[in-house]
Amino acid sequence: MAAHPGGLTAVAPSAVAPRAGKAASGTVSVRNLIRSFGPKGVLNGVDLDIAPGEFVALLGPSGCGKSTLLRALAGLDHDVRGSGVITVPERVSVVFQDSRLLPWDTVLGNVTLGLREHDAGSRARKALAEVGLAGRESSWPHELSGGEQQRVALARSLVREPQLLLADEPFGALDALTRIRMHGLLQDLVAAHRPAVLLVTHDVDEAIALADRIVVLDSGRVARIRTVSPDIGSAADAAGHEALRRDLLADLGVVGTTH
Ligand SMILES: Nc1ncnc2c1ncn2[C@@H]1O[C@H](COP(=O)(O)OP(=O)(O)OP(=O)(O)O)[C@@H](O)[C@H]1O
């Protein structure tokens, strides 16, 4: 196991740094993860496993710690108090709600950013074609719509062939129609590249549409794990879809809601 690039550091003598390592197998494992910002406890003993190629959605009320968990897996937070053990694969990519493209570089430049391989350009062009942006390599980020910018962000993530894709509300800022299109695109990309995925979302329907398993976080702990049947999207299982939706809304404390 190697050290986590994010440096999961303990700053208080009473806190033990979350230990992090890399799993060659591509497995994700979180054990008894505790995290706090100042006096505020955010994650209070999270256990989570994600198998290679598995798609897990993370739902939970606002402020329950979803992004904190994702950031812990990404190794993004520094000077944070906590303890626990995190194991992630070697290659991890992250996408956020905003595309975080560099405004001073072209679409192609953004996708190849940091890639040193001699074939980076051709791989980036292929990734852009996969997300439906062939021919837009020379465009600047400001010339793209919000949905197109998120497509570039997805291409930038996938060109690195991640074993784990961490996605923090990647479609949260998009309109409903673009969002549905992006769901289809993400499904195609995941089927082609087979990364494990952890998707943070507020959207129950998005979670049901995309995930193999849905983890509900509450008060910094895993409150519920629900498996999504592969048939759930089919017309034949409309009742199953509705029942799962109802159960998840109840998990989230939303009762008596049908839509
Ligand atoms: N860097 C930080 N410094 C201080 N407090 C933080 C920091 N990051 C997160 N928090 C706090 O931790 C708690 C959990 O935040 P987090 O963003 O993980 O929640 P979330 O479930 O993703 O919320 P939302 O659904 O609203 O995005 C919040 O109360 C937040 O204010």
UniProtKB/TrEMBL annotation:
It comes from the Bacteria. Its EC number is 3.6.3.-. GO terms for molecular function: ATP binding; ATP hydrolysis activity. SUPFAM superfamilies: P-loop containing nucleoside triphosphate hydrolases (SSF52540). Pfam families: ABC_tran. SMART domains: AAA. Residues 28-244 form the ABC transporter domain. Keywords: ATP-binding, Cell membrane, Hydrolase, Membrane, Nucleotide-binding, Translocase, Transport. This is Sulfonate transport system ATP-binding protein. It comes from Pseudarthrobacter oxydans.
